[in-house]
């Protein structure tokens, strides 16, 4: 009897130890996620400041577009999304432009995600004054193709108030992604094409061609299996060529660095 009691006590202590270690591992993983995000963020900001401070001497500017996104889940279907970006020559001719936004996402199912939000854009210099209020709506449809390729079709409606003038812009983006698994992580190369229709000109005036790769900075499940990742930090590095028949400059090249922090 004494032996049986000792065995039960030993099993109980072992169970408590395992629970404690699991909780400690979870706390450490969250702390590690924050450390990795905070290590990458200063590098992104430093490179941005250096690149944006250089004068553009070419007729086709070369830009660096940094972006930070924070995703906060409220439940299995709803999450909040906060955005901060810095660009140059995207909406104005010469200014460096900032943009902040807040959104709410609703996952209808594994194939359809809806988004509603508001973004505020502003110029960071007085060369070409710019201020924009932009409510947006988005509908993203996802379809799994053969060879483990994911197709995403995103439709966005921009309700723009630029310097007090209202206009409507429709955007459609098609993206192909293919995830490659590494030990405990994954990388996801992708390519996309996006077209814009602007009510100010009643014409399809802008298009963007993009190629990039998403890199998991924290060990987790494969990305493409998840509609809304959790407890993850993702670094997205991409190249974009933008063509616009109604703005100056008409063409530009951009390297984008986006950091997505998922809680």
Structure notes:
The protein has 263 residues and is of the alpha+beta class. The protein has one domain. The chain contains one helix and twelve strands. The chain has one helix at 2-52; strands at residues 62-73, 78-88, 96-107, 112-123, 131-145, 149-162, 165-178, 180-182, 185-198, 203-216, 232-244, 251-262. It has an eleven-stranded mixed beta barrel. The longest helix has 51 residues, at 2-52. It is globular and about 70 Å long. The termini are far apart. Mean pLDDT is 82; it is low at 42-57.
Uncertain stretches of 5 or more adjacent residues: 42-57
Total domain units: 1
What characteristic shape results from the CA principal axes? globular
Largest sheet: 11 strands, mixed, barrel
Q: How large is the count of helical segments?
A: 1
Strand order of the largest sheet: 1-2-3-4-5-6-7-9-10-11-12
What's the Cα radius of gyration? 22 Å
Mean pLDDT metric: 82
User: Which structural class is indicated by helix and strand composition?
Assistant: alpha+beta
DSSP strand content:
over 45%
| SSE ordering | HEEEEEEEEEEEE
Number of strand segments:
12
Helix content: 10-25%
How far the N terminus sits from the C terminus, by CA atoms, comes to 49 Å
